[in-house]
Amino acid sequence: THMLISDVEAEVSKLTGTGDLIRLTADATALYMTRSNQDSLRVQVRDALTDYHNRYPLRRGMPRQELRNRLRLDSSGFDAIVDNIVNDGLMAQDGTTVRMAGHEVMFTSTQKQEADRFLDVLREHRYSPPAWNKIDAELLGALTDRREVVSAGPEVVFAAEVFDEMRDKIIDYCQVNDAVSINDVRELLGTSRKYSLALLEQLDRDNVTMRVGDMRVLR
Fold it and tell me: Each residue of 86-116: b (16+ CB within 10 Å) or e?
């Protein structure tokens, strides 16, 4: 037998009224889930995120795609369940990552000392940060997330305030001269080709500049 649309709508209304069926989306393309399935998914999400935070305490959150793969949901279903959990205050999301609502990145005293030493060297050498100045990769990721540093390449990391200063100098130069070359940057900042190129390539990625031949112009 076939149910009439009106009968289906009535049954859906009844089940949502009792709480046995949960509407995940408010738009015209409604997505529903049974209460038991929602509860099961919430447990899976909690366990996955808790495990991730325990393994990577210095990371802001778990990549959305990684969590989606674990849950084996399609894109629309995943987005809906994540929004549902976030709206209930159990989880937080920002761009490409998700995390438990109470998760915060906290440095140990040893990690803070290591980070401070690393940043002191970057600020001392400013436009030419030395390659020997190394730091744990997870700690570097945390500093990047906090935007205390800008990673402009595999071996090039600038203190964030220094990077911003260099960016502003490049913008000012381009506004006066229309374009800037690697050699111009070397002379402007008194640094090497390695750092000049890394800086310009990062500005390209940030959509501040774009390459035209051997020159860069403002976007």
Answer: eeeeebbbeeebbbbeebebebeeebeebbe
